[in-house]
Write a sequence for this structure.
């Protein structure tokens, strides 16, 4: 007799909760600072500067050394450069009429990669396209790398294919993501059901009022979807669960539309008037307003120039170290392109290693 058991995936038991949810913005800042230091180590490995001299200096001296000796982009320039590419994901997905779950999945993969790898040593534009390519597979909405690169100019689709494995490794092969769009649909359906099942009033006037309220809820839902896309440009996905992200956008829309019934539904039924939950929703809304827009053109251009100047200068002076890093990650954009056979062998090797780990767990 074979007994088959199934386990329903949920956010609380997911790798997203375990590995990609953090307690505060400071923890995220520390992760990004660690990646900058990691990039510095790569640079120092081929530099005439002695690493021990840098370690002995304080952080301010280290910062000055990075900016002057290596033309290191500032943390703010890194953020602007990264966010500009994040903002390109939604238009790229829209060009192929992909469902919103692909946009969310691609943005999540890209943000996770940037949080766990030194982005100054990477061709981040290739990573962005590779993230969309992977998301299309994960969400079963396949678009080929060649098709994607017809929309994103100046990228050879072979480099995107070569980057696929590096992106997988960069996110530790953790591809499942729980977004806010699905719970938002659930809240919309439940809110409409709650209104329609309300029997406190009788007569045609009551029915007409319900129709008006339901239409307002649908309007709020549409506005909320746009707000959730803005949330993708923030760090909210790393700090709050998907349900709270959805409710924050829904509540904001309810206030803007003037749908008191939806406001009451969210605060009373969903949040049960819990002060801490209301505080979280306010924090998400504030974060979305402050950080949920694409960087201005002038700022983005300056950050792009800083990143290109850094990579051009150090690609020449550091040679061996950067080539080794690029070969490992396959993302520097200048290394020889692997053929299909070499790529298949590399993927096969990784799959065999993963199977060996799984088998060992049952020994």
């Amino acid at each position: 007799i074979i007994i088959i058991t199934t386990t329903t995936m949920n956010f609380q038991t997911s790798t997203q909760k375990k590995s990609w949810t953090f307690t505060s913005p400071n923890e995220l800042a520390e992760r990004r600072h660690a990646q900058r230091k990691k990039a510095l180590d790569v640079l120092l490995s081929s530099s005439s500067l002695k690493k021990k001299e840098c370690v002995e200096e304080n952080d301010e001296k280290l910062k000055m050394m990075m900016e002057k000796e290596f033309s290191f982009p500032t943390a703010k320039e890194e953020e602007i450069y990264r966010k500009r590419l994040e903002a390109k994901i939604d238009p790229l997905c829209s060009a192929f009429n992909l469902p919103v779950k692909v946009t969310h999945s691609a943005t999540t993969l890209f943000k996770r990669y940037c949080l766990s790898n030194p982005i100054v040593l990477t061709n981040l534009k290739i990573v962005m396209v590779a993230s969309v390519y992977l998301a299309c597979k994960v969400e079963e909405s396949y678009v080929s790398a060649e098709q994607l690169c017809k929309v994103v100019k100046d990228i050879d689709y072979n480099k995107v294919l070569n980057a696929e494995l590096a992106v997988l490794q960069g996110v530790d092969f953790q591809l499942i993501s729980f977004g806010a769009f699905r719970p938002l649909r659930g809240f919309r359906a439940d809110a409409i059901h709650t209104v329609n099942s309300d029997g406190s009033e009788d007569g045609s006037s009551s029915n007409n009022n319900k129709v008006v309220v339901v239409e307002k809820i649908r309007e709020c839902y549409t506005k909320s979807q746009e707000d959730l896309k803005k949330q993708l440009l923030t760090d909210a996905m790393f700090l709050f669960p998907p349900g709270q992200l959805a409710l924050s956008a829904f509540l904001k829309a309810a206030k803007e539309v003037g749908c008191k019934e939806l406001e009451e539904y969210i605060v009373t039924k969903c949040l049960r008037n819990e002060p801490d939950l209301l505080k979280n929703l306010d924090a998400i809304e504030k974060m979305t307003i402050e950080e949920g827009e694409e960087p201005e053109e002038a700022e983005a251009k300056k950050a792009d120039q800083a990143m290109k100047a850094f990579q051009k200068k150090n690609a020449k002076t550091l040679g061996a170290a950067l080539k080794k890093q690029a070969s490992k990650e396959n993302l520097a954009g200048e290394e020889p392109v692997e053929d299909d056979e070499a790529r298949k062998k590399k993927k096969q090797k990784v799959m065999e290693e993963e199977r060996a780990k799984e088998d060992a767990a049952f020994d």
User: Anything to note?
Assistant: Residues 1-7, 333-338 have pLDDT under 50 and may be disordered.
